[in-house]
Design a protein that fits this description.
alpha/beta; Maf protein; 5 helices; 6 strands; 31% helix; globular; binds inosinic acid
C-alpha cells in the first residue's frame, strides 16, 4: 500500500517536479484533493517558517500527514534578495516576468552574479515536524533564455552547465534542482520509516 501524503501546494509546477521524484511508494494528495482551497498566507521571515506554516495548517485543520515547501532565489550581490519574497518580489504574487525584470535591473552589469535556489520542506509525520533542505548554486544570466520550468528559471544557470533551468527538460532539472535535493532527503526519511 503506498503511503498517502498531502503536499500543501497549489503550484502545479512544484507538484509535477515532486511527483516525478517519487516511486510508487508514496501517493501525493494535493490541497484541492482534501477540499482545501485556502490560500495559506506566507507570513514567516524565513523559508523554514513559511514551510512550517503550510504543513502546520494542514495538520491542525485536517489531522493528516503532510508536507509543505517554501523556496526561493538568493542573489549574493543583492544581499540575498529576493529570498522569501521570491514569489512577490515585484509586488504582485506570481508575476514571474516582472520578478525577473526586477532582478535583472537591480543587478545591472554587476560582475558578481552568484546566486542559489533554496527549498525547505517541512514534514508533519505522526505528529512530529521534520525539515529537509536542498540548494543549487549558479549564476544569473544577463538576459532570459529558454521557455521551460517556471519562476526565475530563464535567468538561472546552474554551475557546471551552460544552459539555464528553463532550457532543461523536467528530468534534467530534476537531477540537480534545490527542490529535487530536498525531496530526495524527504523520500529517504520516509523509506526509513517503512522498515
Ligand atoms: P513559494 O511558493 O513561496 O515557495 O514561492 C517560490 C517562488 O520562488 C516562486 O514563485 C519562484 O519565483 C521562485 N522559485 C522557487 N523555486 C523555483 C524554481 O525551481 N525555479 C524558478 N523559480 C523558483
Amino acid at each position: 500500500m503506498p503511503v498517502k501524503l498531502v503536499f500543501a501546494t497549489n503550484n502545479r509546477h512544484k507538484l509535477e517536479e515532486v511527483s516525478a521524484k517519487l516511486d510508487g511508494a508514496i501517493e501525493l494528495v494535493t490541497l484541492h484533493d482534501i477540499g482545501c482551497d485556502e490560500d495559506i498566507e506566507e507570513t514567516g521571515a524565513t523559508f523554514y517558517e513559511n514551510a512550517s506554516i503550510k504543513s502546520q495548517y494542514v495538520y491542525q485543520n485536517y489531522k493528516l500527514d503532510c508536507f509543505g515547501d517554501d523556496s526561493g532565489l538568493e542573489v549574493e550581490a543583492l544581499n540575498g534578495e529576493p529570498g522569501v519574497y521570491s514569489a512577490r518580489y515585484a509586488g504582485e504574487h506570481g508575476n514571474h516576468d516582472a520578478n525577473i525584470q526586477k532582478v535583472l535591473e537591480k543587478l545591472g552589469d554587476a560582475a558578481n552574479r552568484r546566486a542559489r535556489f533554496i527549498s525547505v520542506i517541512s514534514l508533519m509525520w505522526n505528529g512530529s515536524e521534520h525539515f529537509f533542505e536542498g540548494t543549487v548554486e549558479g549564476t544569473i544570466r544577463h538576459e532570459r533564455t529558454g521557455t521551460g520550468g517556471f519562476g526565475y528559471d530563464p535567468i538561472f544557470q546552474p554551475d557546471s552547465f551552460d544552459i539555464t533551468f528553463a532550457e532543461m527538460t523536467l528530468e534534467e532539472k530534476n537531477m540537480l534542482s534545490h527542490r529535487a535535493r530536498a525531496v530526495e532527503k524527504l523520500v529517504a526519511f520516509l523509506n526509513r520509516q517503512n522498515h
